[in-house]
Amino acid sequence: MRSLHLSLMALFLALASSTPAFAQEIKTVTAEGVAAVQQGAVDIARDAAIEDAQKRAVEQAIGIVIDSQTQVENYQLISDKILSQVKGYITRYNVVGENQDSGLLRVRVTADVSMGKLSDDLSAIGILMSQMHKPRTMIMVAEQNIDGSVNAWWLGVRGETDLNVVEHAFMDTFTEKGFEFIDPAVASKEIRVTAPYRVQDLTATQAKMLGKQADAEVVIIGKAVAKLYGEVGGGLKSVQADLTARAVRTDTGQVIATAITHAAAVHISEISAGTEALKKAANQASDEMMTKILALYSREVGGTRPVAITVSGLTKTQFVKFKDVLRNQVRGIKDLHERSFDGTTAKISVDSKTGAQQLSDELVLRDFGTFSVEVVGSTANSLELKVSPK
């Protein structure tokens, strides 16, 4: 009995530690609610004021995830889908103040809001993904069941482009939250996979290059393998699946989420057990990675996002002037990081409250003195600029 108790405790701790951090994130906000006191019914007014304060608390939390303009544009949708169920986002609240004046009861509360659930639901109704310009995703996860061949459509084995178990699981999980996927059958025709790329374990650089060819903004790469561990009695076979995955932005090469999962399954057929174990591991990984990606998107929409800028054709003096204009004349720039300067080409990264497209609009309107700046290319998170003398 003691051994069973310790095993259950270890399992609980393992599950708790494996839960993505953002899914557990709680934001404490302070809000005030107001209600009219009618016919001396203070208790009824207090309940109404508390409900109003809870609604205001969730509205504040929404403001952390998306900007005010987006809230205005999507007011009805947010009101119908989010604010109609505020208690689902508030895990705890405390009344910290109350006063009555001119027939109105004002109640002040502190409320703990579940940011993970709020972000999930904003994504589910399309608001968060719309603010991120609906990045298209491509899956490139190599999969191998019990002693079978590797299933990976980009390897070109027998010309197969069928989805495997892991890809299906990822697509099922992500599409529920508004993610758009590029069909592997389409991608296999669009991209040119040369010999160096016909490998099971793609690097972030390789994913970046292949994803660009298919017009994908994000590529999920990885490998999943199912192995037989023996029999457990009654002719049942025990199989474990191990999966590693990473999500890579194709414009910057930034790894935005990772997952390492393991899952076991038993079946009289080792192939069926392997399939079930792969599916379990994929479901765990897709849930974890989706939570991390949504957390990143939420932070970027509500705060700043990194934008990689490459500028060509400038001298060191012009580079200094360019950085000065960025820091002091371009709205939304919160920080600037110089990556390199080589001859006439500079690479920098900025933390911006807007995306690359809005940033490029700002730059073409700025006065750089003796030179002008032309935008020659852009993605959601990168800009390619060229300097020319006036």
Description:
This protein is of the alpha+beta class. It has 3 domains: 20-113, Dodecin subunit-like (2-Layer Sandwich); 132-302, Rossmann fold (3-Layer(aba) Sandwich), CATH 3.40.50; 305-389. 40% of the residues lie in helices and 33% in strands. It is built from 13 helices and 13 strands. The protein has helices at residues 2-18, 21-24, 42-65, 68-73, 75-81, 115-124, 127-131, 165-175, 184-190, 204-213, 270-302, 316-329, 356-363; strands spanning 26-36, 90-101, 104-114, 136-144, 180-181, 218-233, 236-249, 255-267, 305-312, 333-342, 345-352, 371-378, 382-389. The strands form 3 sheets. Strands 5-4-6-7-8 form a 5-stranded mixed β-sheet, with helices on both faces. Helix 8 runs parallel beside helix 11. The protein is flat and about 80 Å long. Mean pLDDT is 84; it is low at 1-23 and 158-162.
Features:
390 residues; alpha+beta; Dodecin subunit-like; Rossmann fold; 3 domains; five-stranded mixed sheet; 33% strand; disordered N terminus
What's the Cα radius of gyration?
26 Å
Give the strand content: 25-35%
- Give the count of helical stretches: 13
* Helix content percent band: 40-55%
- The low-confidence runs, each spanning 5 or more residues with pLDDT under 50, are 1-23, 158-162
**Structural class category:** alpha+beta
Task: Give a brief rundown of this model.
With 390 residues, the chain is α+β, with helices and mostly antiparallel strands. 40% of the residues lie in helices and 33% in strands.
